[in-house]
Amino acid sequence: MFPGDDSGALAGPPAAPAATAVFTTVLTEGPVSRVALARRLGLSSAAVTKAARPLIDLGYLHELAATERTGPGAGRPASPLAVRADREFFVGVKITADELIGVVCDLRAQVRATARRPLTDPDVAAVLTDVGRLADDLFEAFPGDRTRVRRLGLSLSGDIDRTTGLVRYSPFLHWRDVPLGRLAAQRTGLSVTVENDVKALTAAEHWFGEGVGAESFALVTVGTGIGCGLVVNGRLVSGSYGVAGEIGHLAVDATGPDCHCGGRGCVESIAGTDAILAQARDRTGRPDLTFDEAVALARGGHEQVRAVFTRAGSAIGCGIAAVANLVGPTRIVVSGEGLAAYDLFDSHIRASFERQAFGAAARCPLSIRPLPFEAWARGAAAVSIQSLVVP
Amino acid sequence: MFPGDDSGALAGPPAAPAATAVFTTVLTEGPVSRVALARRLGLSSAAVTKAARPLIDLGYLHELAATERTGPGAGRPASPLAVRADREFFVGVKITADELIGVVCDLRAQVRATARRPLTDPDVAAVLTDVGRLADDLFEAFPGDRTRVRRLGLSLSGDIDRTTGLVRYSPFLHWRDVPLGRLAAQRTGLSVTVENDVKALTAAEHWFGEGVGAESFALVTVGTGIGCGLVVNGRLVSGSYGVAGEIGHLAVDATGPDCHCGGRGCVESIAGTDAILAQARDRTGRPDLTFDEAVALARGGHEQVRAVFTRAGSAIGCGIAAVANLVGPTRIVVSGEGLAAYDLFDSHIRASFERQAFGAAARCPLSIRPLPFEAWARGAAAVSIQSLVVP
Q: Is residue A208 part of a domain?
């Protein structure tokens, strides 16, 4: 994380392991009593009380009114600890090839304001200027206390080093080794985190969505690229060499097409939206066919175009089954802009998953659902929240 | 783990988290000073000293002679803590379809005695009798103190619940829901752990082999079955539904053969030793061909049989690349009895891995090496050691 120019004011919560554990648990799992926290975290009650004290003093946590406990030990009042969602706010911005999408979230990742801005120039300086302008737009739209916004999370696809805020490689912006965290902190005066967009979305689901409390969890995104964020043994998987969750480049068809990555028969080379469009153009002999037209043809019953979507759904299902067979997540969420054609995919993804999931791995529930536009930006904000809670 | 009939004597080391962390670190990483332990584990020096005390008193750890430190702080003597390998010994037994393979290991998983016994009857009672006899053989061959052997680790392929010692399903013994841990504890008087054989082998590599200190690590075994043990974020992956590491059932060929699992084009349906033999028989028109004969034909230059091994190596390489692309292990060890034909596989495994590994994932080193016969049994002993150290 890169501190902004008012870093002196960024005292933030204490960094001791017990405080971090207490803060994380209360934030992600809702109001929790000290007794339950002690049991959950393997700490003494005294240690929980000690860890919670500065979090309460700094306004991040507060005690709910004492309630009568029921069940064993009934009668002793318990005062659950809860998060003050308005204690601090976070800007999240997803950078795409042609647009910036931004949100302001509270500490519980509830969206409080949204804004968008077209991206006209992929040059680093131009993008930074637009990020700054988008932040101004968001502050204008944000109904809360502007002085409580001190952190900015950025996300984009590509190879990102979260710890240093470095964009190692962004294929669509043609960036290499851009120190985006440092530059954006200078430009905005906010403390900045940078993360890969799929990992950021996974972080949001892990802390604030379907992945809460799951020891393992997977989020698969379907679009031009096909990506996957993985939580295993309670933590996001980042890969020893910076590569993880590359479900789009699993080989599922030995006689399939060559992929831009150098592989053959990769999921993305069959089921990415560009790949689907190329196949549909080929089958119809219409080189100017758009993706929406291909979807319309398939929905209208065009056999050969339907077969392209069927094959794509099967490839995605094989990739998802590979995730289930290898790491056995508790649940898998499938989402992304490619799911606009959801009705053409859904049953083929499921059929292929069920065929290839090994034994009890088939019991892993799939949530296949579209992704609201601001979810990607909220993911970026969630990473910023994590950088506050887990310094 | 199931305590044996002398469980009263099994006081064992303390179960406090700090003691477990100190014991694990000293055991797996060799002699470590208290200062280094405190830094590594995020504990105070006082906490390390307090945690180590009972481990020293019980004879599990001892202090090496004080040595002069060099570098910063030079001059203050440091007395590294080390494990007493002879403090306790562990029997490990791998159960195969036709043989029991046993070892006695010390606390550092060094093999001190080995024995084998043919398995004549897959009936549970008969196997238990043979396990008891093998244990007697091992005690006879073991040159150390018999009274220090109090634990037995069993491993076999199939669906095993390590926490309850239950064999849910063993395909080759045709067992379902056999409480092997409890039964073996009754039969031998030892405290028993039961684990899947591939996971046990992975545990041995993680604590005592190439995986020491790795946050993530994979072990792939090639044979009749093709399996994989995974360590991610420092812990063995067990799968939310009991399924993990099923690399043999990744779909890598959309037009490949049907697999016994119900899938299509699974790695195992192409590259398992049974699958290779079936394809070689088909290509040669010799239904009585043996695996060794197929290997000899391929080595002799028989084009069509060579192609079977080439295809198998490619399928295995795709499976390994899937592991690298999804979880990004620090290193991958490929081993197993199927690698007797190592020379026919090796280059195809590597070529296919390199083609399919995405970007920097290709930097993950592959160690392709044969597996000494007692390694599987040592894996079972390693799980037993873990049950002592992490109660």
A: no
Q: Minimal Cα distance from B220: which residue of A? A: A326
Q: Which residues, including other chains, have CB under 8 Å from residue A186's CB and lie 6 or more apart?
A: A5
CA distances from B383 to B69, B153, B166, B376 (A): 35, 6, 15, 11
Is residue A248 within 8 A of residue A269, CB to CB? The reply is no
Q: Is residue A241 less than 8 Å (CB to CB) from chain B? A: yes
Interface test with B, best of A226, A228, A240, A258 (most B CBs within 10 A): A240
Q: How far is CA B317 from the centre of its chain?
A: 21
Q: Quick one: B299 and B246 in the same domain?
A: yes
Residues B45 and B167 in one domain: no
Terminal Cα distance for chain B, rounded: 9
Of A234, A265, A235, the closest CA to residue A249 belongs to A265
Give the span between the Cα atoms of B113 and B100, in whole angstroms.
14
A316 in reach of chain B (CB within 8 A): no
Q: Does A257 touch chain B (CB under 8 A)?
A: no
- Contact check, Cβ <8 Å, A328/B247: no
Q: Residues of B with CB below 8 A from A250's CB?
A: 250, 321-322, 325-326, 356
What's the domain range around B198? 87-203+375-389
Which of A42, A233, A322 minimises the CB distance to B237?
Answer: A233
pLDDT tens for the 391 residues of chain A, in order: 666 644 444 567 877 888 999 999 999 998 999 999 998 888 888 889 999 999 999 999 999 986 655 555 555 557 899 999 999 999 999 999 899 999 999 999 999 999 999 998 999 999 999 999 999 999 999 998 999 999 999 999 988 989 999 999 898 899 999 999 999 999 999 999 999 999 999 999 999 988 888 889 999 999 888 999 999 988 899 899 988 999 999 999 999 999 988 999 999 999 999 999 999 999 999 999 999 999 999 999 999 999 999 999 999 999 999 999 999 999 999 988 777 788 898 999 999 999 999 988 999 999 988 777 789 999 999 999 999 999 8
Residue contact B325–A247, C-beta within 8 A: yes
Q: What's the ipTM?
A: 0.86
Is the same domain home to A219 and A359?
Answer: yes
Looking at the structure, tell me whether residues A15 and A37 fall in a common domain: yes
Which of B322, B327, B356 lies closest to A237 in CB terms?
A: B327
Apex B181 CA angle, B178 and B186, nearest 5: 105
Q: Is residue B208 part of a domain?
A: no
Distance CA A250, CA A265 (A): 8
Query: Quick one: tokens of B169?
Result: 């399903």
Distance CA B238, CA B47 (A): 31
Contact call for B253 and A249, based on CB within 8 A? no
Mapping DSSP onto H, E and C, the string for A210-231 reads CCCCCCCEEEEEECCCEEEEEE
CATH number for position A221: 3.30.420.40
Q: By C-alpha distance, which of A213, A226, A384 is closest to A318?
A: A226
Chain A closest-CA separation from residue B53 CA (Å): 21
Contact A363 B233 (CB under 8 A): no
- The alpha-helical segments, DSSP class H, found in A114-228 are 124-141, 180-188, 197-208
* Chain B residues in contact with A325 (beta carbon < 8 A): 243-244, 246-247, 249-250
What CATH number should be reported for the domain holding residue B62? 1.10.10.10
Q: Which of B199, B202, B109 is nearest to B163 (CA)?
A: B199
Residues A222 and A192 grouped into a single domain: no
Interface subset of A 130-159, CB within 8 angstroms of B: 159
Q: Is A246 on the interface with B (CB under 8 A)?
A: yes
Measured between beta carbons, which residues in chain B are less than 8 angstroms from residue A42? 17
Chain B positions touching A230 (Cβ under 8 A) are: 326-327
Q: Do A318 and B251 touch (CB under 8 A)?
A: yes
